[in-house]
Write a structure and sequence with these properties.
Blueprint lengths: L2 H8 L7 H9 L4 H14 L2 H4 L3 E5 L5 H8 L4 E6 L2 H14 L5 E5 L7 H4 L2 E7 L8 H9 L2 E12 L5 H12 L3 H22 L3 H10 L4 H10 L8 H10 L3 E6 L6 E2 L2 E2 L7 E7 L6
Parallel strand pairs: 1-2, 1-4, 2-3, 4-5
Antiparallel strand pairs: 5-9, 6-9, 7-8
């Protein structure tokens, strides 16, 4: 990897400004969103796997997942994000909702994280982040290196679709466009998405409501999706291969969208969606 490429990977200015979107979303965080975030986290990591554990949140965004981990009684949270706005938002959310808990929040790229300096963690968590780093395979390696023996690595990544190449071009354009063009593209996407829901006989209103039940917001997610550059996607088989190379074993996964696959790959007309994974590092000392 040449030095310029490495600089681009850790330069927040090269990436889409996720932090501003998360700062806006954080204003909506209340009891319903926090409870939903706790439920979502426990879907991957039951409460008994979290209590008393050291928890790393890579790409902390709004801080909502770090907050959920603290409420589920982890011993300590270390939250990092490449975006300074996300760091500030996470601090504000945790200061407001988790005062007195043990946590640290700082600006860092996953490529800056070193287990010699950071230590290792019982749980390393990164939901919908590593596919935006510009080097997904290397990001997975760096994150996995932080997992302690007997620890867990829980993450979500965009699944591969037929449309991924076109979405990558769209995201690069959107991320480097002005607010006016971005607003126009969001309007076009929403119009087409509503039409798609109508054709399928699905309720757009119920779909939007389902985001609230997961502690998320549909309209913020649309901006996040359209602008999420850098962008990569990955299949479950490729994830398994990457984890095998770093010595982690499969615990569970939620690989969705199978019903919309065409010749084995999701069409991805309105987006990819994330598959969720939990892998473990064996404790060879026992």
């Amino acid at each position: 990897m040449n030095s310029q490429h490495r600089k681009d990977l850790i330069d927040a200015n090269v990436h889409f400004a996720f932090g501003k979107n998360w700062a806006s979303y954080a204003e909506l965080i209340g009891a319903q969103e926090i409870t939903a975030a706790e439920s979502g986290l426990q879907r991957l990591l039951p409460a008994e796997t979290l209590e008393g554990k050291r928890f790393m949140d890579i790409g902390c965004g709004s801080g909502l997942h770090s907050l959920a981990a603290l409420r589920l009684k982890v011993r300590e949270v270390v939250a990092v994000d490449i975006d300074s706005d996300s760091v500030a938002t996470t601090r504000a959310v945790l200061d407001r909702h988790a005062r007195g808990a043990h946590y640290a929040v700082r600006q860092a790229s996953v490529f800056d994280l070193d287990p010699v300096r950071e230590g290792r963690f019982d749980v390393v968590y990164s939901w919908g982040v590593l596919h935006h780093t510009g080097d997904l395979d290397r990001a997975l390696q760096r994150a996995a290196a932080l997992v302690a023996p007997g620890g867990l690595f829980a993450f979500a990544l965009y699944r591969k679709t037929w449309m991924c190449g076109l979405w990558k071009l769209e995201k690069r354009w959107y991320a480097h466009s002005g607010p006016g063009i971005q607003k126009m593209l969001r309007g076009l996407y929403l119009t087409l998405f509503r039409a798609g829901q109508l054709i399928r006989g699905s309720s757009f209103k119920q779909y939007v409501q389902s985001y609230k039940e997961r502690g998320m917001d549909f309209h913020h997610d649309v901006h996040d999706w359209l602008g999420g550059y850098p962008y990569e996607s990955i299949s479950a088989d490729e994830v398994a291969g990457a984890m095998s190379r770093v010595g982690l074993i499969h615990v569970k996964s939620f690989v969705r969208g199978q019903e919309r696959h065409i010749f084995g790959r999701n069409l991805g007309l309105f987006g990819s969606g994330c598959d969720e994974y939990v892998y473990a590092r064996p404790d060879t000392s026992q």
